[in-house]
Amino acid sequence: MEFFLQPYPWYVAGPLIALVTFFLFYFGKRLGISSNLETFCAIGGAGKLVDFFKFDWKKKSWNLLFLIGTIIGGFIAYQYLTPSDTVGISQKTVQDLTALGFKNPGKSYLPNEIFSVETMLSVKGFLILLIAGIFVGFGSRYAGGCTSGHAIVGLSNLELPSLISVIGFFIGGLIMTWLILPLIF
Amino acid sequence: MKNIKFLILGIIFGIILSKAEVISWYRIYEMFKFQSFHMYGIIGSAVVVGMIIFTFFRNGKIKNFQGEKIIVAPKKKGFYRNMFGGIIFGFGWALAGACPGPMFILLGRGVLAIVVVIVGSILGAFLYHTFKNKLPH
Q: Is the dihedral of CA A148, A152, A157, A158 positive or negative?
């Protein structure tokens, strides 16, 4: 039992993710989380405004079920499999975040400076969360995939479009982390 | 009910990503600062094991549950869509510290603020399809 309560090292998590990918293919599907965002638009009636969303979303219900599964998985892991709420980030990361004004980085699972309810209810905090989400949704659909579809499946399949996308992910991520985050916090 | 297997796979996926701390904002920040091998190890080892599995798909040694050859449909080609879409996605990934999978896993964790990110991402997907004819692909 002790083993299951420890955080998974990378060499356990990576192959397990590949195994989930395998089972999806075995059952005739392809791992890709961000296409669910389009399904939500379709369910919400976006087809009235943009023709693209007129697709039959029921054909994608397997992916919605997968998504609901991830929510349940998050709940189970949090409630029963995670005795500690700390994250084992490097000492250098703790120093950098402290210098940015973050309090006790890594001592909680997420930084209060972004995810506390108090922050969410402030104008700046709300806008950061909303704009981050818009970037994720817009970018993943523009690129035709996110970390799961491009980085995991696409790279495994040696696809050039996925390599370009992942390089793009890192260009964007590095600009945000090194240049923009210090301006925001 | 035949789709229940996808629910179970999703639960497993959610537990793996939670237990590996992939869904923590801190881990994404640390990755983009090149201060730990953790995230690179996870994505890298998933890709390497994936490559091996896909080789068996290609040569037909592993077939799907109906005994058919597994064909991995390629992603859409085009430099601009993949590069610009990727960069915009990267902005969001580093800011929210979460990509689409972890966003929903964090919802299961009871993180209320992630609802704003999820609503934003659905809005983002809507905006892309509204303006896609004006964008280079």
A: positive
Nearest CA in chain A to B107: A71
A28 closest CA partner among B122, B51, B5: B5
Token couple for A47: 């087809």
What is the residue-averaged pLDDT of chain A? 95
Contact list, B44 vs chain A (CB under 8 Å):
14
Domain ranges for chain A, please list them: 1-83, 116-185
- The reply to whether residue A128 touches residue B108, judged by beta carbons under 8 angstroms, is no
Over residues A47-61, mean pLDDT = 95
Percent of chain B with pLDDT over 70: 100
**Residue A1's pLDDT band (cuts 50, 70, 90):** low
Could B93 and A157 be called an inter-chain contact, meaning their C-beta atoms sit closer than 8 Å?
Answer: no
Mean pLDDT value of segment B95-102: 96
Window 31-90 of A: residues touching B by CB (8 A cutoff) are 33-34, 36-38, 40-41, 44, 46, 49-50, 52-53, 61-63, 65-78, 81-82, 87-90
DSSP 8-class letter at B132: G
